[in-house]
Amino acid sequence: MKRLWNYLTIYDKVLIISLIMISGIFMLTPLVGLLSEQDRGNQEKEIVIQTGDGRVQRILLENTFQEEALIIPVEGPLGISYIEAHQGRVRIKEAPPADPLKICEHTGWIEQAGPPIICVPNKISVWIEDKESELDGVSW
Amino acid sequence: MGFPGSWKKYTVMIIILIVLVIIAGGVSYFRNGRVKFLLWDRKGIYSQQEFMMDTIVTVKIADTKSRSEPALTETFHEMRRWADRLDRFKPTSEISRINHSQGKPVKVTAEVIYLLEQAREYSRLSKQAFDPTIAPLVELWGFGQEKQRVPEDEEIKQLLVKTDYRRLILDPGENSVLLPAGMSLDLGGAAKGFVVDQGIKKLLALGIKSAYINAGGTIRVIGNKAPGQCWSIGIRKPQIAEEGKGSDYYNNYIVKLNQGSLATSGDYERYFIEEGVRYSHLLDPRTGYPARELKSATIYAEQALLADILSTAVFVLGWRQGQELINNLPGIEGFLVRDGSVWSSEGFTDLTK
To answer: Per the CATH hierarchy, to which homologous superfamily does domain B94-178 belong?
Structure first.
């Protein structure tokens, strides 16, 4: 082994060492990726509001624990729906007057990942996303 | 060998260092304070949500980003195409053309023939607890429209004769459908399942092996979500909105799937109230009135289409007859909820373990 090492030129050695370093980088990158993924796993629950045109608003649930309820006006084809988030819960407080049945308003509060609140006429849906939820979805 | 002298050695070192930095820069870049890796196209779950068929549709794909993102777009495009073809409020849809045919044969796609064949078959097996020709009754009650009301007995009786799947004639050889004048189709209890199946078909054709589609509560999955890990699906508790409890799911009945479909029919989603009585949109085609015995019925089947049709049929059949139908059909499992109690078929309980 020692004799073999003596046979190598400086360039051979540099080549071997750089190959080891490059392959080391490629071996380590997925590990770093995994670590950064775990960091994201600690994220708290989020309220997600999606409108018919595909726009999405996200609010950390932890930001709703304030004295005053958070009121979020969201515009849809029928008018403005008022979404209320307070103490870790969210509901559609007021559907626009043009919504004949206001089913989403009657759905009430949701406080965990599960079925969404859907306002079909005004094309607005609200749900809670929880990275640690055991569920991928709900049949309703 | 030549090149003595230490400065040459350092030059080589520096060149190597520069090369390494360039490589490292090529593999990763910073975004939002986090290192992202370009070459490392890691598997993850990529999802997209859109409004379709009067509800919200979610598609999730467990694959690499570069494969998932185009597949999501294509799958939504495919599902929307089929949803439009089945929309009876769209004048150019295949269903509208059948409904306005005045008793003349109409050419449709082979897929729609298959859908109608299945609808007819399960109408027969459920002894008409499901019926695709229920549109005149649905319209009379006003479900899906602005003015909903409880019709007179006499009005309902007149329309019951127009609700009869046996008079829907299919010719699979010619891909043609014949529906007598005055009758019309409403695929409310089957369309979501059918569209989910078409979405899954598209995903499989694109080489996706692991995915989940949820169209307004009708769900189908393929493959494990991650190695050795099934997709977990909850079942909504049939709470009435007026009670203000919001929506919640059964903690003890979480279904784990790596293939197959779940669909739920409940009386909580679409309904209206007249003189203090709640009328749900799930009409019994045999009586013309909303079915009342169950609060919700969830069905497992391989295809979403069957799960969707059977959840409607079983809801209408009720507690005892619904259980009978589930037990009699091979490959079908079910979970029923009525006031104060739930029932789960043996196979369904196995799916929750």
So the answer is: ApbE-like superfamily (1.10.3980.10)
What's the one-letter identity of residue B52? M
Please judge whether A30 and B42 are an interchain contact, meaning their C-beta atoms are less than 8 angstroms apart.
yes
Taking CA atoms, B160 is separated from B42, B103, B285, B287, in Å, by 57, 18, 7, 7
Give the position of tokens 């699906």.
B233
Closest to A108 (Cβ–Cβ): which among B13, B233, B245?
B245
Cβ separation B241–A139 shorter than 8 A:
no
Distance from CA of B53 to the nearest CA of A (A): 10
Tokens 């059949």 found at: B317
Integer Cα distance of B350 and B293 in angstroms? 26
By C-alpha distance, the chain B residue nearest A138 is B234
The helix/strand/coil state of B232 is strand
Are B319 and B339 in contact by the 8 Å Cβ rule? The answer is no
Alpha-carbon distance of B9 to B14, in angstroms, equals 9
Q: Which two tokens stand for residue B273?
A: 């109230």
Report chain A residues whose CB lies below 8 A from the CB of B34: 36, 39
| Overall pTM > 0.80 | no
B243-281 pLDDT tens trace: 445 567 888 899 999 999 999 998 877 777 778 787 888
**What phi and psi values does residue A59 have, to the nearest 5 degrees?**
-130, 125
Q: How many CB atoms lie within 10 A of CB A126?
A: 24
Q: Residues B224-353: name the CATH superfamily.
A: ApbE-like domains (3.10.520.10)
Q: With CA atoms as reference, report the closest residue to B185 among B213, B155, B164.
A: B164
Q: Do A100 and B146 touch (CB under 8 A)?
A: yes
* Beta-sheet strand order (sheet of A124-129): A56-60, A46-51, A124-129, A117-119
Q: Can you give the length of chain A in residues?
A: 140
| ipTM, 2 dp | 0.79
Neighbouring C-beta atoms of residue B237, cutoff 10 Å? 23
What residue spans define the domains of chain B? 94-178, 224-353
| Torsion angles phi and psi, residue B330, rounded to 5 | -70, 140
pLDDT in tens, A42-85: 346 888 898 888 788 888 887 788 788 889 899 888 889 999 98
How far, in Å, CA of B239 to CA of B268, rounded?
7
Check if the beta carbon of residue A94 is closer than 8 Å to that of residue A69: no
B234 and A112 within 8 Å at the Cβ level: the answer is no
Q: Could you give the CA distance from residue B293 to residue A112 in angstroms, rounded to a whole number?
A: 29
Whether B73 shows a pLDDT value over 90: the answer reads yes
Q: Is B137 helix (H, G, I), strand (E, B) or coil?
A: helix
What phi and psi, each to the nearest 5 degrees, are found at residue B106? -125, 135
- Across the interface, whether the CB atoms of A140 and B247 are under 8 A apart is answered yes
